[in-house]
Structure formats: structure tokens, C-alpha cells
Amino acid sequence: MLILLGSSVSSVVSRWKSLLSGDNRLDAAYSVDEIDKFTTSRKYDIHLLHRQLVDLDCCSAIRKMDPDSRIFLLSDHPSPEEGLAFLKSGVVGYGNTFISPDRLREAVKIIGSGGVWLGQKVIQQLIIDSSKKASESISSDHEQRLGLLTRMESRVAMLVANGKTNLEIASELEIAERTVKAHLTAIYEKLHIANRLSLALFINQSRA
Known about the structure:
- The protein has eleven helices and six strands.
- By secondary structure, the protein is an alpha/beta fold.
- The protein folds into two domains: 2-118, Response regulator (Rossmann fold, 3-Layer(aba) Sandwich), CATH 3.40.50; 126-205, Winged helix-like DNA-binding domain superfamily/Winged helix DNA-binding domain (Arc Repressor Mutant, subunit A, Orthogonal Bundle), CATH 1.10.10.
- Strands 2-1-3-4-5-6 form a six-stranded parallel sheet, with helices on both faces.
- Helix 1 links the parallel strand 1 (2-6) and strand 2 (25-29).
- Helix content is 56%, strand content 13%.
- It has helices at 10-20, 32-41, 56-65, 80-88, 101-112, 120-132, 140-146, 151-161, 166-173, 177-191, 196-205; strands spanning 2-6, 25-29, 46-50, 70-75, 93-96, 117-118.
């Protein structure tokens, strides 16, 4: 993939370069003007940008110049509110500047293949927001699918949809955290759902 790294902090760019070089072709921009210059002359698969350097207007401008590029924003102090604001502007990835090497590579792979990658706090906020918009009744179609779950799996799924973490679910149900994880694995397989966020949105969006 062709990736443009954008940060005014040279050590951040160097870290990203060291972690992503090899399978990817990388360019580095150290100012907004350089980002504009690179984006005007080349088409990138991903813009990996430092929040310290760019704002919402800058991200919107990049999307106008290169609509097919996918913006992955990393922040020194990520917050759900900031992440959601940038997601609404078209950013498809948001997390911590100092994300672990494995998670950075995983995120870039997911984003490059057309997916969305978010930090855990942003995912939790999305789940909570979707839960607030839902009522308590469930449509018949989704009720049939949820009927595949055991009683305990159903309780775990509903708690996930209400924004609870695995540790909170374990405490509420008086089971081990590893048991919660095992239930989630079974739930994903039965409902053909890929992850926690998809499960929460499935349940909350199915509520009439």
C-alpha cells in the first residue's frame, strides 16, 4: 500500500516508518502544506495522520483532494468525543499515537482493505450511544436469530449492547471474565457477527 505519514514530530514519523516499512511504500509530510503537496501529486491508499498536526477542516480538505484515500488519525490523547467527531467527517480510523506495533499493523491492514478501525473507548461510546436510541422491544426477525442463543449468552449479549465491558459483565453475572469471552465467541459464531461493536449495533438497531 502507498501510505502518507503526516506529523510535525519527527520521532513519531520515524516510529511509524519503522513499523510499517517493508510491505508498504511510505512518504512523510511534516506540515499541512507538505500534506497538501503530496496529496495533490499522488494518490494514497491511506493517510496516517497525527492529530497534533491536523484538524477537521484539514481532514475534509484531504478527502476532497483524494476521495479514495482512507484517513487514519492517531492522537496523543484520544477521546471518544474527538474520535466520533472525526468519524462523522469521514475518517475511518482513530486511536492512540503510541499504539502497539502489532495493533498498528493490524489497523493499517484493516483500513487498507476497506474496514474501519477504532480504539476501545470510541467503540464503547458508540455502543452506549446506540443503546440510548433503542427501546426495549425487539423485532421478530432479530428475535428469531437471538433465539439461537442460550439464556446466559442472551444476557451477555444484552449487557454488551448496553455498553458493559467484559469485566463489568463478569461481575454482574458472577462468572469469570474468561467465561464471558467464551460466551462472546459462541455468540459471534451463532449470529455470524464479527466483533463486539457489530453485536451491540445488531441488538440495538433491532429494537423497535
